[in-house]
Design goal:
With 569 residues, the chain is α/β, with parallel strands linked by helices. The strands form 7 sheets. Strands 2-5-8-9-10-11-12-13 form an 8-stranded parallel beta barrel, surrounded by 5 helices. A 6-stranded antiparallel β-sheet has the order 16-20-21-27-23-24, covered by helices on one side. The structure holds alpha-L-arabinofuranose. Alpha-L-arabinofuranose binds next to loops.
Length: 569
């Protein structure tokens, strides 16, 4: 049996969807199986028998393979909701090396910096047009006292949540605002509802936003910023059901109303337009505890009076499979690859569940569902402080990010903001640093490739995704979204979850006179391939060959890949 013979045989087996490589692998599997069954040293004649057995096995399996065919069609004349650019938001907590070393090195550092903020990190973040940064936590925010982080003399405190280390407070309000200004992002402040008071939070907002010459405004000017700051988003608490004070939904609700009323934004530019949006604590899962939380807050919202309001409900959901986080972030195999991706796809059901409750009390969708903590949470890197949540970032994380961003885009009418956890050196980070060294992660590249989807208009598509199966894990083989950017250009993202097989795409295009297509793809040699300081380009985007022929977009997706293409008319 020669290779051309096998190729011809394959092509007559109505398995046009089966790639030649897949066919060879399938043949090999059946050959090995038949060989094992006979369990003998094989003569040449016997080999013919084995080949026949293997081919019979392939014929029997062919319908299964045929079911894996991926079909995609897009009608560009149909449009949906705007994909709010805020779904590409970031989260920076005082945790491990997230802020200190990751952003802040201090003005006296030998690492190139502007007023203490790393220049390399700023340049990288500017390139992905970060819309907003949630700060200072997380659980850290639940016991953060802002006065410790202003002025010439900073109060040195502790960080009991994250390793019990010293918190120098050298990165405080001024530094955060300076950092936002350097990268061009909006402020998303999370105020202390746990150990703080409404008065403390109200004074922080007055300090930040008033243009009047109050004592706090003068203090702000003395500390280097006479003009009022803009605070776009205010998080009223963080995980108030857990590290934020273990409150009942009703107790939180009464606190939230007080904060919503008294923690005012005085910035003159934010009174009529560009008003600060207030985000209440929402659910952290899908069980009755969480549906009760959403129900309590949203039911109250429906009855809300002039004295309080919210514009968003936060939701936290990590891809962890089970607590405590035990999956390795590097050095894993196909099983862990599949398990993590299966787990991450649960985000869709979670959003549906809480959106359905929100729809009951807010059918006009005035309150956004804000997924302000999401991402993969794995075991701490060996040798690292377990309280620092340090992990590597692989092509699996790139695919995880793409799947979640696609889920958010499909729910764009309700999910209008999201913040991946966390921006630098912590959990599913964009960037890893080690002293003067910096490396961009596969997740960073996904955020970069998705730039055209910021504020684009969702275009619904029809997808027969096929299946990828490994052991008892079955996943869609492909995931995809389409959108029109602000100039009207059509963009597609297509993820191939299958880590072994390429996928041939022949997408039907309607509602558009397509002429050509171009794009980029992100893939890697292994399921756990990562970028390191020594090998920073193992997982980096490269051009993909895509074309338009007969009204169809034609391209081949590499195994375990994220691909973004634009269609030119
Ligand atoms: O992102 C790490 C932690 O996870 C945050 O501080 C907390 O809000 C969540 O539990």
């Amino acid at each position: 049996m020669t290779t051309p013979d096998l190729k011809r045989l394959l092509s007559t087996m109505q398995a046009s969807e089966v790639s030649f490589a897949a066919g060879c692998r399938l043949f090999g599997r059946h050959f090995a199986l038949a060989s094992r069954l006979l369990n003998r040293r094989t003569s040449l004649a016997m080999r013919d028998v084995l080949v026949s057995l293997a081919l019979i096995g392939m014929v029997l399996t062919a319908p299964v393979m045929a079911a894996e065919k991926v079909e995609l069609s897009i009608d560009a004349s149909k449009t949906g909701a705007k994909i709010d650019r805020n779904i590409f938001g970031q989260f920076a907590e005082h945790l491990g090396h997230g802020v200190y070393d990751g952003i802040w090195v201090g003005p006296d550092s030998t690492i190139p910096n502007t007023r203490g903020i790393r220049n390399d990190v700023v340049a990288a973040l500017k390139s992905i047009q970060v819309p907003n940064v949630r700060w200072p936590g997380g659980c850290f925010a639940d016991e953060y006292h802002w006065r410790n982080g202003i002025g010439a003399q900073r109060t040195v405190t502790l960080n009991p949540n994250w390793g019990g280390v010293i918190e120098p407070n050298t990165f405080g309000t001024y530094e955060y605002m300076d950092f936002l200004n350097q990268i061009g992002a909006d402020a998303y402040l999370s105020v202390n509802v746990g150990s703080g008071t409404p008065q403390e939070a109200a004074e922080w907002m007055e300090y930040l936003t008033t243009a009047q010459p109050t004592t706090l405004a003068k203090e702000r000017a003395t500390n280097g910023h006479p003009a009022p700051y803009k605070v776009a988003y205010l998080g009223i608490g963080n995980e108030s059901w857990d590290c934020g004070g273990n409150m009942t939904p009703d107790y939180y609700l009464s606190q939230m109303k007080i904060y919503s009323h008294f923690v005012r934004n005085f910035n003159p530019a934010q009174q009529d337009r560009q008003q600060m949006l207030k985000i209440a604590v929402g659910p952290g899962g899908d069980g009755p505890r969480w549906t009760e939380w959403t129900e309590t807050v949203m039911k109250a919202y429906q009855q809300h009076t002039w004295s309080w309001d919210i514009n968003g409900l936060s939701m936290h959901s990590y891809t962890v499979v089970k607590w405590p986080p035990s999956y390795a972030s590097v050095g894993f195999g196909e099983t862990e690859y599949g398990q993590i991706l299966k787990s991450t796809l649960e985000m869709d059901g979670l959003i549906r569940k809480h959106s359905a409750i929100m729809d009951q009390y807010d059918p006009d969708k005035k309150v956004a569902l804000v997924v302000d903590e999401w991402g993969g949470w794995y075991a701490p890197l060996p040798g690292s402080n377990p309280g620092f949540l340090a992990q590597q970032n692989s092509i699996r994380d790139a695919i995880l990010a793409a799947l979640n961003l696609n889920i958010f885009a499909r729910h764009a009418d309700r999910v209008r903001m999201a913040n991946i956890a966390q921006m630098i050196n912590v959990l599913q980070a964009m960037i890893l640093t080690d002293k003067e060294k910096m490396v961009l992660t596969p997740t960073y590249y996904v955020f970069k490739m998705y730039l055209p989807f910021q504020d684009a208009t969702f275009v619904p598509l029809t997808l027969n995704a096929g299946q990828y199966t490994h052991g008892n894990i079955t996943l869609p083989r492909v995931d995809a979204i389409a959108a029109k950017d602000t100039t009207g250009k059509l963009w597609l993202e297509i993820t191939n979850l299958d880590p072994n097989e390429p996928v041939d795409i022949e997408a039907s295009l309607a509602g558009i006179t397509a002429k050509s297509a171009a794009g980029e793809t992100l893939t890697a040699p292994e399921v756990d391939s990562v970028n390191t300081f020594d090998a920073p380009n193992v997982v980096a985007p490269k051009p993909v060959s895509a074309r338009v022929q007969g009204g169809k977009l034609i391209l081949k997706l590499e195994p375990k890949s994220v691909t973004v293409v634009s269609v030119e008319q």
